[in-house]
Protein 1
Amino acid sequence: MRGHVRKRGKGWVYVLSIGRDLTTGKRKQKWSRSFKTKKEAERELNKAINEIENGIFVEPNKVTLGEYLENWLEDYARGAVRPTTFSSYRFAIRTHIAPHLGSLTLQELQATHIQRFYNNKLESGRVDGKGGLAASTIQYMHTVLQKALEHAVKWQLINRNVAKLSDPPKIRKRENATFGAEEVKRFLTYAKGHRLYIAFLLGITTGLRKGEILGLRWNDVALEEKMLSVRKSLALVDGKRVLQEPKTSGSIRSVPLPSLVVQALEEHKLLQSKEKIKLGALYHDHGLVVTTSIGKPVSPSDLWKYFKSILKKADLPNIRFHDLRHTHATLMLQQGEHPKIVAERLGHSDIRLTMDTYSHVLPNMQQEAVERFEKMFLSDE
């Protein structure tokens, strides 16, 4: 018999047999909390027996969410994700999730707790106390919490992922800011001669991410073949610059280069060679394409600072550096390039992501396609 119901004090409990202790060989029993009626205790006993028979029964434990999340960071996340991703997971957990939900046990945690947490963060979640967090930030916390609890289910600490039952706030879709062809020319004119010109040029002509540009090494560039390969990305992790796998991992991304970029790379390589000769042993040779004048990696913040200064001098819209990537994709699509080719250049794992991100470009493209199709018939008249 797996279990039975008995009277205890003023209420009813069930006692459930859950196997034997592997060390002592003694029978293990689970005593339930007290129920008001015998019928209620019997119903919960049958539910527990059904869970055992279906392989979803979880032994009671008092592990708190805070304790579990710290273990999850070390036991899973540290070895499974990129250093920057691990750092952002840890920040979300220690700064936001654990201080508000960490004292609850895993088995106490309900979707209502999580929902209330999201609502509070949306209203007044900033660390500095100056208002609420962006919906995208809360969406990220939801992703982290959902991933972590999914492993808790796999590791049989809980029998369901309650984060899946909660609803984070929806993100309002932001239309990407981009340059037109004339604005690109104006920007490059003002950027020409700047130490980081090559970084700006690569952003516009290849669609590489900022970290991919800063992590590009000379042995990833084949000038004669007019090709570069995306193998590494430079990132700041706990204040230190590290080279890590790019965002789209699993395969090396090859990106063909226009002739003007090849020429600019050749000129930039010659400049670096002169700097190496001049400084000798004082030069920090990391093999990177984008460096300071003494060979050190360029920090993302410095790249952003110089980029903003050129925008100001050129009297151009105040876009983000990342928007150079959007500019590249938008201009290629407007020139009639197939979205699959654009997706490959950007490193999108799925063409649907490209289509969704640049959907605002497609209506004009469709209209132009219709007009070309119509001309095919009119040309015979």
Note: The radius of gyration is 29 Å.
Protein 2
Amino acid sequence: MNAPRNPYQQLVAEAEGRPFAAIVGWPVEHSRSPALHGYWLKQHHIDGHYGRLPVEPKRAALEELVAFLKRTPNARGCNLTLPHKIEIMPLLDRIDPGAQRIGAVNTVVKQADGALEGRNTDGFGFLEALRYNAPHWRAEAGPVVVLGAGGAARAVVASLVDAGVPELRLVNRTRETAVDLGVALAPRDGRRIVIGSWDERAGLLDGATLLVNATSLGMKGQPPLDIDLAGLPRSAIVYDIVYVPLETALLAEARGRGNRCVDGLGMLLHQGRPGFEAWFGVKVEVSAEQRHVAAADLGA
């Protein structure tokens, strides 16, 4: 009886010599990135592969990932999800300036010289999905509340600051992490990043035009997000970057009180575009059909 392949052997076998990329995380089984990129590969008749690669949250495991990408000729790079977006950075050859500013990487692209470059497309995906699903929203209209200060939250905050939000209220369960993020990304033109404590999160919703859950709370297998929406204007948009489940308890409550809602699937779809284009050399767009396919893959 043959011994089971390790995840790297499995991925190479699935690729069958074709150019490939993969989603890397721990755990990674929940990711729908393979369905997303598989759709584009099929749509554009590209002979390539996109798979899953579970990698433990240990430096030695990340070093093994980097070595694998470098030594495997048909490896084009990878996406990174929890918990690797920050820890991978010191191991890469180059970091794109945008990702350096955010302090997190979600996309690794193997260059022609074999070097690995870290990029961040989460902010791009976040704003593209927001503009698509809530085209009336204007950054300058008023305060925005962001829950979370991890890798994805860093990209969200950077994109909102760059979009021109006049006041960003940042709340995290660990206040010190939020303070560090606020200092790192604070605008230099008089606009503010206000750091709130987790206990006062509901009070910070007053007057907000947008509430973003950029934590893992509410995700399948994680604790629920507990927040009282009573103080949130009904005109505000509620955006949950969680996409498993697609309709989180936060979105269900917000929708029930009349708020416009944006789920995490749109961000997932749009953030995938720049990486796919870098790996496989074809420009792609997000379509309603693709969203339908991805939602069906989620069982939604």
Note: The longest helix spans residues 264-280.
